Amino acid sequence: MWTPELKPGPAPLYERLVQSIAGDIRSGTLAPGMRLPPHRELAFRLGVSVGSVTRAYTEAERRGLLVAHVGRGSFVKTNASPVPDIPTTERGVARLTNAGPRGAGAIDLRCNTPPPVSLMQDLNEALMALMARGALDPAVHYIQGAGLAPVRQAASLWIRNAYGLEVDAANLVQCNGGQHAIALAFSSFCGPGDTILCESSTFYGARMAAEHLGLKLHGLPMDEEGILPEALDRAVAETGSRLLFTLPTLHNPTTRTMSVQRREAIAAIARSHDLTILEDDAYYAYSRKPPQLASLAPERTLYLVSLSKGICPGLRVAFLALPPGVARERLIRGVRAFGYCPPALGALVFEEWVREGRIDDIAQAIQKEAASRWKMAHQALGSLMTPPGADHSPHGFLPMQALEAERVTTRLLRAGVEVTPPDAALVSRDADTGLRLCFGAPESQAELGEALTIITEVIAGHGRTDRDGIV
Predict the structure, then answer these.
(1) N or C: the chain end with fewer CB closer than 10 Å?
(2) Is residue 226 a contact partner of residue 262, using CB atoms and an 8 Å limit?
(3) Which domain does 257 fall in, by range?
(4) pLDDT in tens, 403-440
């Protein structure tokens, strides 16, 4: 039974697995024609995700190391001539110039970002305005505590106008993006070994944070409106969990949105069990504006808003709104532990955009482009895609059985489209399985259109083929 050695290093896990395959072919450990372990078996043996193994096998095949046969598995190529190891700094360039039938790298539908809208003029004008009024000085200094007071005042105004939620600036903590905010909340309200409740599938960043901090995620069954209240009630009693992490609006990955009645039920159960809620409202801007859990249970809800999904991910600005009266000293210690202080330059740009009202124009431009891309996806995929809990969504979900999702993922990568590994979001075995497609990631609508065509062809069973004619 071949088990590869994954050497430590800066390269991604899948790349290190490809290096191990190449090295074992050179040494003769993997002989020509030898069958490699199935994806799931090797993933279990290595303690990694199936998606990482799938991506490694596909990349090894592209480099001429393996050949795959549908229904039979992956085999060492009989005339394999392993490509020499490429330095990590050059490997990405090589992939972009050589990967797949497109000849320019796979179309990336993995990263859930807002669609590209040019912000350079907005950025330049904000910096010029900050310089003109002498407000850039904090950008070159450490920022202590919860962030700059003017930035938090701007955030309070922005959340009120864009989210319809009144939040006192004194209760806001500035974070280095939403991922940082999640890690702060997890580490501040939980101890090693504690259990955090969440949807049966959840944001992969939350999974990473929990694993890194030594915390357990307990997935809760969902219906078309999200978490089942009775399941939450049982799980609190069974696990002793004190924290619920939830994405109630355009849930990632399934795009489901809780109704008002469901939110009220979740809030009531949290109140009855003295359960703290971490509400990640990353996609509220795309929604029909349902009431937040923070408005229904303000005394126990940590409310997370971020610029990453609806404004500009590169600014790395997010805010945690804390319940009134909740001690924030541990959170502030977490800010120092994870990064010493919140970044200032992006926050100052955000403040200037709020001050000038420019942030509303940016948000509208992004929503307009997102709606156009959603319309394209809906026209191409139709009933293959779950209807979202809003008029449009930055991501779509194609439900399918787990094994089929893995096969489609592999076929898409060979055909030139890269999607999120289907097991990345899974927390529990009863989770809905399928593929998440991120419509904002492609550089243009034309590139998105090409990806959608490939997806429909691959799922229909007569999709494009790789160099060896295997789909």
Answers:
(1) N
(2) yes
(3) 120-356
(4) 899 889 988 988 889 998 888 899 998 899 999 999 99
Q: Could you give the angle at the alpha carbon of 89 between the alpha carbons of 83 and 95, nearest 5°? A: 50
pLDDT in tens, 217-272: 999 999 999 999 999 999 999 999 999 999 999 999 999 999 999 999 999 999 99
DSSP 32: T
Per the domain annotation, does 169 fall within a domain?
A: yes
Indicate if the pLDDT at residue 89 is higher than 70: no
CA 3 to chain centre: 30
Q: Where are the alpha helices (DSSP H) in 28-148?
A: 39-46, 50-62, 88-98, 120-132
User: Left (φ > 0), alpha (ψ -120 to 50) or beta: where does 64 sit?
Assistant: left
Task: Report the number of distinct structural domains present in the chain.
Answer: 3
Query: Could you tell me the CATH number of the domain that includes residue 312?
Result: 3.40.640.10
Q: Cα dist. 283→178, 183, 277, 305, 391 in Å? A: 12, 19, 17, 9, 12
Pairwise CA distance, residues 247 & 113, whole Å: 16
When pLDDT is cut at 50, 70 and 90, the band that residue 81 belongs to is low
Same-domain pairing of 351 and 332: yes
Question: What are 126's two structure tokens?
Answer: 């904000």
**Both tokens of residue 269?**
């159960």
Both tokens of 386, joined, read: 């779950």
End-to-end CA distance of the chain: 27
Cis peptide before 253 (omega within 30 of 0): yes
Are 242 and 276 contacting, i.e. CB atoms less than 8 angstroms apart?
Answer: yes
Residue at 391: amino acid letter = D
Distance (Å) of CA 348 to CA 106, 160, 161, 174, 361? 36, 19, 19, 12, 18
Environment class of residue 168 by beta-carbon count within 10 Å: exposed (0-12), middle (13-18) or buried (19+)? exposed
- The C-alpha atoms of residue 411 and residue 233 are separated, in whole angstroms, by 41
Alpha helices in 273-357 (DSSP H): 293-296, 329-339, 345-356
